[in-house]
Every structure is written in structure tokens, then in C-alpha cells.
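step=encode ok
step=design start
structure_in=
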């Protein structure tokens, strides 16, 4: 399995590893690059998978990025493993920039005139909290006589989710295309070099085997 660990980590270690992987983010990025370039698939399929993975990191569907990346990669006939690895672009170091760019682009396209960078974090956190509160209340209202509340959910949809979704599609397509055209030639060069090394190694082994066979046949040939 590609993502299976030999040692099982505790919940605390797994949570801490999400924000700061063992060895740091540089080592984690090199590991992802190593896994992607060594995938046994044509370069264009791997690049399509990378496009799918980068695209979904700009979507507001947190928790479903793996599923969406695999689905889009399958539709595009790309490499699914590459799409899952490419979701690494969305990490605690980049989520803030991704969210801000997606929200700002969405508000610009919708013509709301909002500036996300000038909006306080507390205001955005209050919208998330209010939407979560409405969800909880409406769920409990199913089993009681309370009326459902939709005000905070509507506010969250219009101010956060809708612009994030629209802006995320645009920014995700741009970032995904950049990742596709950037990664494709790199993967092609890497695979050609790797194939050349494997071919040279195979030729050297054949030559060594031929020399050993010649020596063996010479020893077995009786003198006249």
C-alpha cells in the first residue's frame, strides 16, 4: 500500500504530524516529488492526476479532497495515485493563501465588492460558528418542536461558501494547468533518464553474463 504505515501512530502524533510532518515540510515535499516521479505510468497520465489533485485543493469541500481528486483523475484518465499525492499542495502552510485567493476571486466575480484581506478573522470565524450552530439546532429540531433556523446558514452560503466555490474553481483551474504544464516535461525527462539507466544496467548484466558463459565454456572445453 502506498500510504500505509508500518508503525501505528497515536491520535496526538497524527494531529501534530498534519501540521508539522516528521523531518519538516521540505522533506515531505521531496517525498511526494519522489513518489510522483517514480509512478509506473505515462507522463501525461501522471500530469493529469497532478492537475486533478491541485484543482480540488482550491475547493471548499474539506474532507473530500481525496475523493474528488480520485474522481476527477478517473474522469480525465489520469493517474489516481498522482492525484492523491498532489493534494499535498493544500497543507497548513498554504491553506490560508488558497482560501484568501479563492474567496477574493469569488467576491470579485460576483461583484460583491468585498475585500477578504481587510475582513477580520473573527468575522469569518463567527460565520463558521453561526453556520455550525444552525446545523446543530436544525438537527435537534427534527426530534423536538423547535423551528429550524436558516439565517446563519444563508449568511455563510452567500458570504463564504458561494464565493469560495466560484473563486476556487477559477483559481484551481489556473493552478492545476500551471502544475500540469510544469510537471509534464519534468516527469518525461526523469522517466527517460531512468529508462536509460535501467537499459544500461541491463546491457551491462547481459555482457557480464556473456563473459561468464564464455569463461565457463572455455573451462569445459577439453584440450586437444
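sequence_out=
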Amino acid at each position: 500500500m502506498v500510504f500505509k504505515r508500518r508503525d501505528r501512530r497515536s491520535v496526538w502524533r497524527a494531529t501534530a504530524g498534519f501540521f508539522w510532518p516528521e523531518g519538516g515540510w521540505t522533506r515531505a515535499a521531496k517525498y511526494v516529488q519522489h513518489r510522483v516521479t517514480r509512478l509506473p505510468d505515462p507522463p501525461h497520465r501522471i500530469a493529469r492526476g497532478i492537475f486533478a489533485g491541485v484543482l480540488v485543493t482550491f475547493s471548499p469541500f474539506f474532507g473530500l479532497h481525496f475523493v474528488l481528486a480520485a474522481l476527477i483523475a478517473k474522469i480525465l484518465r489520469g493517474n489516481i495515485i498522482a492525484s492523491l499525492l498532489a493534494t499535498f499542495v493544500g497543507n497548513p502552510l498554504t491553506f490560508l493563501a488558497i482560501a484568501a485567493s479563492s474567496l477574493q476571486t469569488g467576491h470579485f466575480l460576483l461583484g460583491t465588492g468585498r475585500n477578504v484581506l481587510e475582513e477580520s478573522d473573527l468575522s469569518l470565524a463567527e460565520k463558521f460558528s453561526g453556520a455550525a450552530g444552525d446545523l446543530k439546532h436544525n438537527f435537534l429540531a427534527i426530534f423536538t418542536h423547535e423551528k429550524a433556523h436558516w439565517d446563519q446558514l444563508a449568511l455563510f452560503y452567500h458570504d463564504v461558501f458561494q464565493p469560495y466555490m466560484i473563486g476556487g474553481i477559477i483559481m484551481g483551474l489556473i493552478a492545476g494547468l500551471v502544475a500540469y504544464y510544469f510537471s509534464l516535461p519534468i516527469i518525461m525527462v526523469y522517466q527517460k533518464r531512468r529508462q536509460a539507466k535501467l537499459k544500461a544496467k541491463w546491457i551491462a548484466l547481459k555482457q557480464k553474463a556473456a563473459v561468464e558463459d564464455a569463461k565457463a565454456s572455455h573451462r569445459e572445453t577439453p584440450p586437444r
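step=design ok
step=annotate ok -> Residues 141 and 148 are 6 Å apart (CA to CA).
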